[in-house]
Amino acid sequence: MTDVWANQYPVKCVHPGMESINDKDLILKSFEQIFEQGGHGQFSIQPSQVQIDISGATAICSCVEETPGGGMLEALSIYKRESGAWKMTLHMASPVLARLSPM
After folding, report:
1. Which residues, other chains included, contact 14 with Cβ-Cβ below 8 Å and sequence gap of 6+?
2. Are 92 and 98 within 8 A, CB to CB?
3. In the predicted model, what is the mean pLDDT of residues 87-103?
4. Which residues on neighbouring strands pair with residue 92, listed in sequence order?
5. Nearest in space to 76 (alpha carbons), one of 64, 86, 67, 85
């Protein structure tokens, strides 16, 4: 997870129902705690409806994260190019509590 996050840009993470975290070390600790809650060090998120838009040195990724037990999160992440690799600068997720009816 350390390699995913940017070192040269400000970072921000917003977990569902929590205030934003703006420090890489605290972000990594928060994910460590989330993954530990999955039991035996296993926590699985399956992405679906992935859409990636790239503009220059910035990429925006939106998806639905399907969690164990059938939960769903709408997620948005922003990446920037850093030393030739894509590095995350923002990740935020929100639980899907209701679905809109088709029009």
Report:
1. 20, 21, 91, 92, 93
2. no
3. 89
4. 14, 76
5. 64
Which pairing describes strands 12-14 and 85-95: parallel, antiparallel, or unpaired?
Answer: parallel
Q: In what order do the strands lie in the sheet with 85-95?
A: 12-14, 85-95, 72-82, 58-66, 46-55
For residue 32, count other CB atoms closer than 10 A to its CB.
Answer: 11
| Burial tier of 91 (Cβ tally within 10 Å: 0-12, 13-18, 19+) | buried
Q: What is the pLDDT of residues 3-23, one digit of tens each?
A: 999 999 999 999 999 999 999
Both tokens assigned to 4: 């995913």
